[in-house]
Amino acid sequence: MSEAAANSKEKNEIEVSKTILPENKKYESESLNYQINIPDWLLKDIHNFEKSNKENDENQNLIVKAFKLAYKAHDGQFRASGEPYIIHPVAVANLLKEIGASSSVIAAGLLHDVVEDTGIDLSEIETNFGLEVKILVEGVTKLGGIHFNNRTEAQAENLRKMFLAMASDIRVVLVKLADRLHNMRTIEWLNDEKKLRIARETREIYAPLANRLGINRFKWELEDLAFKFLEPKEYLDLKDQIAVKRSDREKRLKVTLNLMKENLISAGLKNFEITGRPKHLYGIWSKMERQQKHFHEIYDVAALRIIVDNSDSCYRALAVVHDTFKPIPGRFKDYIGLPKPNGYQSLHTSVIGRHRPIEVQIRTTSMHQIAEYGIAAHWQYKEGGSPAKSNAERFNWLRQLVEWQQEGNERDHNDYLASIKEDLFDEEVFVITPKGDVVGLRKGSTAIDFAYRIHSEVGNHCNGIRINEKLSPLSTALQNGDFIEILTSNNSTPSLDWLNFVVTPTAKNRIRQWYKKSHRDETIKRGRDLLEKEVGKNGFEALLSSEAMKKVANRCNLKTTEDLLASLGFGGLTLHQVLNRLREEIKLQTEDVKNDSDSEIAKSLKSNNNLSTNQPNTAAKSPISGIEGLDYRIGKCCSPLPGEDIIGTVSLGNHGITIHREDCENVIPIPIERRLPVGWNQDNKTGDNKFPIQLRIEVIDRVGVLKDILMRLSDKGINVSDANVKTAYGKPAIINLCVGLESYNQLHKTIEQIKSMADVLDIARVGQS
Questions:
Q1: Which of 117, 234, 300, 485 is catalytic?
Q2: Between the CA of residue 458 and those of 123, 312, 452, 493, what are the distances in Å?
Q3: What pLDDT score was predicted for residue 22?
């Protein structure tokens, strides 16, 4: 153990009494001139800790110790906003305190960044705070010191690590969600590219994750914050529309509340609470988008919530609501009798109110706690975090994610991310197993999708299905409330024809993986032949067994050289990817090779020009890395720019590789085996390449407006290769421009510069997915 670790206990001791200022609740830096606000509860813990001569209860001691260590470790560090970094872990701890997390979880919230951002290691965390806190901190610490080929790979690996940690202690995700929520609250200080990337990841992964765990308290705010940065115009428009009619809505709601309260009391219900609740902005906007409606057509902008003391009172309150107002057919849902997979329980109904339709939710106090705080509301998670201890079926999706990554599929980063997003998103179809369990699936799912959701072995050996006790085709789309029984046989195996009708990424990935494994010998031979043809037979066997080749396999997240050959043979890796990484490894071992000039590997290198480490670096000549030596073209459908995440797709015929943005809709139908991980070449000077981008500009129709825009672009050194104008009497003019840009950052600046012109009404990038 290092000297710092050995003396960690002494290092953790901070003279709190010298730095606390009780009158203004601030904490001063020991080395710099700044102060931070401390939440009342934490300030109280610190004072109690000192007054009791450090002999207060162990839980309180744990939180105070964690604060003191985090404070000292982060002293001198600052966030992008310019504020002292300690503000972030304190805010995370405060969010965890709000949802009732245990002392261990709050301590982990205070310490969650010290391993990643300071000199403190996990052994010191365990020494000072115990194994439980150490596991929680380790679960939310990003992988450091590891080289990733692109952002997709890094994102996949960090999520993989987090889900593995969640499988052993589900409370890891509470810290991660609180961390993400505070980061989203302060995201405006980051650059535009980073803001959009983090906001998109929040919407696609973390908000659905909060929903899966039933933590609506976090889910709603994460969705609204992502909405604010991903669709800023729509966000502000919707916010303004809601504000304009707020007073009228509140008056109507008050009348309805009073009427409902009187009728509930008359019906003999005494212990109840009735409130009006506004719906969050993203929920309203997504409904408008889904139903293609305008704001004034959405009636459940606000809703009533009735909280009673037991389940029986829920149904009695429902009867009162339906007696008071006319129910809307088809709008009643009983999530008490049939809870959602995340444990959510409530009665939902929509009725015709005094002026317009209104939504009503009815639940008990305990149901409300679970609806707001999810797993944090369950006492068993405060004493131990393993999902296996209680309600394990609620975490079936988590078990499957962990199983999948343990089946040897670490290299399929895009597949893994797609599977995560599919497994986290809201289910739209709920079916029932023979044991009476409810399973949520994506709309349009079939028996095969259901079988793989249960377990990969059930899917691999499925040979029939009974829907509502009737034999049905495997391709039958499942409906809400269907009773499903999967028939299996040890002799049955997956069919590649299933790929024509399954809809979930999980099922598609498992079918492809089975095919890879079942044809392993064939794919290994194909990969071997490809590599041998490229590097030559001389010294090939020595090359395969060399340390350099083993390291190439490890860098591709594969365990053995055979796995590498199989992936090469199946198309999971390209020949150029393997050769380029092999050259890099050989270059690192050049000195060893020189010292042993008679070795087989040395002879292979000397006789083979294809692996020469002295050949000119052609990668720097191309703006795209990962496809060296291959023909490629930039996809016109999405026109990606440096600074945006990209992916390559193998075109049919002799058209080479097409480069798309990762979120391009045209990538979705392309099979995984025809997708290549690529990235922008960081060694290539951005200014050496110009990429064509189509802009659509809506302007006030006047003489000279196009000239003014072109002059603005010319002043910024931006070339315009094509321009046309469409006009119509009494309407704005539409200008379509094709401009050559260097990066996404330049695109953003260009749009802002044109948007600032007085005659410009709107501007948008054309071809954006």
A1: 117
A2: 41, 39, 6, 10
A3: 35
- Among residues 272, 166, 283, 289, the alpha carbon closest in space to that of 216 is found at 283
Instruction: Decide if 450 contacts 434 (C-beta within 8 A).
Output: no
The answer to whether the CB of 486 falls within 8 A of the CB of 423 is no
d(CA 109, CA 89): 6
Task: Answer yes or no: is pLDDT of 29 > 80.
Answer: no
Q: Where in the chain is the domain with CATH 3.30.460.10?
A: 237-376
Query: 237-376, which class in CATH?
Result: alpha beta
**pLDDT surpasses 80 at 201:** yes
Which has more confidence, 684 or 263? 263
- 117 noted as active-site residue: yes
570-582: pLDDT as tens digits: 666 777 778 878 8
Using H for helix, E for strand and C for coil, what is the string for 386-455? CHHHCCHHHHHHHHHHHHHHCCCCCCCHHHHHHHHHHHHCCCCEEEECCCCCEEEECCCCCHHHHHHHHC
For residue range 447-472, what is the model confidence (pLDDT) as tens digits? 999 998 888 889 999 999 999 889 99
C-beta pairs of 87-90 under 8 Å, 24+ apart in sequence: 87/36, 88/113, 88/179, 88/182, 88/183, 88/186, 89/113, 90/36, 90/38, 90/39, 90/42
Q: What are the pLDDT digits (tens) for 284-329?
A: 888 777 777 777 666 656 678 999 999 999 999 999 999 998 888 8
Chain CA centroid to CA 91, Å:
21
Q: What is the pLDDT of residues 625-661, one digit of tens each?
A: 777 656 778 888 888 998 888 988 876 654 568 889 8
Residue limits of CATH 3.10.20.30 in the chain? 427-505
For tokens 């590997």, the residue is 601
Indicate where the chain has its CATH 1.10.3210.10 domain(s).
Answer: 3-227
CATH number corresponding to 3-227: 1.10.3210.10
Top CATH class of 690-766 equals alpha beta
In the structure, how many helices (H) and strands (E) does the chain have?
35, 24
pLDDT at 434 over 80: yes
How, if at all, do strands 302-308 and 357-364 pair?
parallel
Share of the chain above pLDDT 90, in %: 12
- Domain(s) labelled CATH 3.30.70.260 in the chain stretch across 690-766
Q: Which residue has the tokens 């707020």?
A: 246
Q: Which helix (H) or strand (E) holds 30?
A: none
* Active-site choice (15, 40, 116, 437): 116
From 3.40.47.10, 3.40.190.10, 3.10.20.30, 3.10.450.50, which CATH number describes the 427-505 domain? 3.10.20.30
